[in-house]
Amino acid sequence: MNNKKYSSPLIAAAFLMATSAIGPGFLTQTAVFTNKLFASFGFVILISILLDIGAQLNIWRILCASGKRAQVVANEVLPGAGYVLTILVALGGLAFNCGNLAGAGLGLNVLTGLDVKIGASISAVITIIVFINKESLKWMDVFAKILGTVMILLMVYVVIASDPPISNALHESFLPKKVDFMAIITLVGGTVGGYISFAGAHRLIDAGKTGTENIGAVSKSAVSAILLASTMRAMLFLAALGVVSKGISLNAGNPAADVFQQAAGLLGYKIFGIIMWSAAITSVVGSAYTSVSFLKSIHPLIVKKEAMVLTLFVLVSLAVFIAIGQPVKILVTVGALNGLILPIALLLIIAASYNKIIVGEYRHPLWLKIFGWMVMVATLLLSIKSFL
Q: What one-character-per-residue DSSP string does 335-388 give?
């Protein structure tokens, strides 16, 4: 990387993907599994990191080599497949943004006592301000970087306060007492499932970081994105482990909040509020941006009126949340469909790597193809199981 102009979009893409992954569900999921598996959850995190890197390297490298967004590549591999992918991503993004806005509202409620729906509305207005700015991409990048850094720094304090058995965590990360394969796949889906798979790659395509000459830098950005999200996951795991290893069972109603409160008292609870709000609002931004990047292929007017479409996307999510709360049945149904996005996308995108018309002179490494096929089969089996 020769200069800041070159490196900035690559760092921004990593933060966008990482902060998109770190949402309300991410926090709850980590606390729940730590409460269930204790130190052995470290092994689950380790394996999921490897699978996440395999998925992201395939998607980011092939898309950036082609210079085309996922839905365009999918349509070139199998006519119509890109439109199916677009519908799945947009519906999933819209539904889960209800949950993201709920999380943002909860975060502000913890910090200020504001009603959750008012907090969600304020958060929606903040994201809209980011999107309607003339330099929206720059604002979005700064937003993700600052809040991502804040979350990680605050988590360091909570981990120290929690005083986890680190040597035990390290030992069982490599030699676990129990292995939960469902937890591994759930973590993969939570980190690189749905729209999250494409957030960073589409950001790099928008920045023009495409072609074989950028593949090395794109790979570093993809791995950095997973490591950023996984750092947050590992620290939250350690904080939760510090609590549960003392014989304290986490509150099932809000296990993530309980981790912070048990570890650091009232200050810890307020830190939870900051982290929950930061995690939720950056996920709102990432979900809206990525979902609309898929919709751009439908009509050129969406490209021209992108800020308006992004605003509408956030407002519709907010309206649904305010009207009926978190639509649990919708979330469960769309969640199951969301699980299909990663295996379908991997199938289509890896298939594209064999087509020189799509990727030009780029040669995708065989080991990455094999890695990608493995992740695709594992996530597909889980998706099928969730429907049965």
A: HHHHHHHHHHHHHHHHHHTT-HHHHTT----HHHHHHHHHHHHHHHHHHHHHH-
Q: What is the mean pLDDT of the chain?
A: 90
Radius of gyration over every alpha carbon of the chain, rounded to an integer in angstroms:
20
* Dist CA 62 CA 66 (whole Å): 6
Helix axes of 41-66 and 328-352: crossing angle, nearest 10 degrees: 60
Q: Which tens digits make up the pLDDT trace of 200-246?
A: 999 999 999 999 999 999 999 999 999 999 999 999 999 999 999 99
Distances (CA, A) of 262 to 115, 214, 233: 24, 46, 18
Residue 388: is its pLDDT beyond 80? Answer: no
Residue type at 58 in one-letter notation: N
- Max mean pLDDT range (5-14, 44-53, 258-267): 258-267
Q: Is the dihedral of CA 155, 157, 158, 159 positive or negative?
A: positive
Q: Is 81 helix (H, G, I), strand (E, B) or coil?
A: helix
Q: Which residues contact 177 (CB under 8 A, 6 or more apart)?
A: 38, 39, 40
Write down the pLDDT at residue 91. Answer: 86
Per the CB < 8 A criterion, the answer to whether 331 and 98 are in contact is yes
Report the CATH number that the domain containing residue 134 is assigned in CATH.
Answer: 1.10.4160.10
CB atoms inside a 10 Å sphere around CB 257? 22
Q: How far apart are CA 173 and CA 259, in angstroms?
A: 20
What does the pLDDT look like over 95-119, one tens digit per residue? 889 889 999 999 999 999 999 999 9
Q: What is the reported pTM?
A: 0.91
- Name the pLDDT band for 330 (thresholds 50, 70, 90): low
Which domain does 156 fall in, by range? 4-387
By three-state DSSP, how is residue 167 classified? helix
Q: In 10 A of CB 132, how many CB atoms?
A: 13
Domain count, the chain: 1
- The three-class DSSP label of residue 1 is coil
CB 82 within 8 A of CB 75: yes
